[in-house]
Amino acid sequence: MKKVGLIVNPIAGLGGYLAEGGSDRPEVVSKAVDMGIPLRSVERASKALISFKNSLSNEKVMILSPRGLMGEKSVEIAGLKNMWREISYKPKKVTTGEDTLLSAEELADKGVDLLLFSGGDGTARDILSAVNGGVVVLGIPSGVKVFSGVFAETPEAAGEIAALYVRGLLDVDEREVVDVDESSYRRGIVSPRLYGYMKVPLAPSVQRSKDFKQHPKAALEGIYRYLLEVLGDWDLLILGPGSTVKFVAEKMGLKKSITGVDAYSRGTEWLNVDVKQMEEIVSSHSKIKVIVTPIGGTGVLLGRGNVQLTPALRRIDKSDLIIVATPDKVEGVDHLIVDLDEEEVNEKFRGYARVITGYREEVVIKVI
What are phi and psi of 175, to 5 degrees? Predict the structure, then answer.
């Protein structure tokens, strides 16, 4: 019988809705709970498990995890409690990285064939510390920062990959674990660090690591000039995170946070907007335009670091989402990814999209 380990970081991703660079600080978690924001990491792990079950053949599989929100709850939501076995480690009521590390150590000792984990780059670092490359792992993307190359593109993809791997149909590759300092990230300072490598199943839907390189200024200038021609009329302009969008904003004379979502009406600006503020802002505007850029390397367009865009994305048409990216960012990219928590919004923006890459230069890319 194959053994699959599961570790869920219950608080991962909560900070994204609050316009925070992560979810490490207790006050961020408390505020998210008070606002009624669901534990998205638990829910996304359950989506991965449903996909896992649907992609299995006749293999007999045992799922091992801690009790409660660190694994059992996701298994229960997915309807797989008959496959579940509890490990001996008991997580604290309010979990920390230590719970992840100690759970991963026990699962490694039990000889799991694959270790699934739901979280972000901080969770990946804890897993790395525990297993040190000795276990094949796969991340279910649930954090604010998901820059490492050890994550599947979506929760559903994670389940499919996991099933193919336990069926013996995939090889293994080594991928990078990278992270940025959360306190610096909140201040707009993006300083990546390579922490090491972990073994992951080799599949096309395992994301690449984020590309942190500088973009050519000539291409950025061209994007800005063309954007002025195609932007059209608006009474609310919303800008997603990223250095490409920040360059455009500054050329337009607007203040911009590099890691946040910002909104502008005629004579009014809202910087680093959280999801509740976004709901209030969009409710009083009708002509809304949203400008975003995909995360370099990973190809993620919506989700991860811009989930606070969701209220605006519910209201706009697909044509009101303007995508910008320098040619080097989309070179070799055959698709972009939408991975928000609302499937109806995801479906609206899937298909094909135009991406502005320079002055009167565009490419059409598939969006999945």
Answer: -130, 160
What string of DSSP letters covers 5-58?
EEEE-TTTTHHHHTT-S-S-SHHHHHHHHHTT---HHHHHHHHHHHHHHHH--S
CA terminus-to-terminus distance, the chain: 34
Q: Please state the separation of Cα 194 from the chain's center in Å.
A: 18
pLDDT in tens, 283-293: 999 999 999 99
Helices (H), 201-358: 217-230, 243-251, 275-282, 310-315, 327-330, 343-349
The C-alpha atoms of residue 43 and residue 41 are separated, in whole angstroms, by: 5
Residue 279 has phi, psi (to 5 degrees) of -60, -40
Distance CA 358, CA 354 (A): 12
pTM (two decimals): 0.91
How far is 366 from 216, CA to CA, in rounded Å?
A: 24
pLDDT-above-70 percentage for the chain: 96
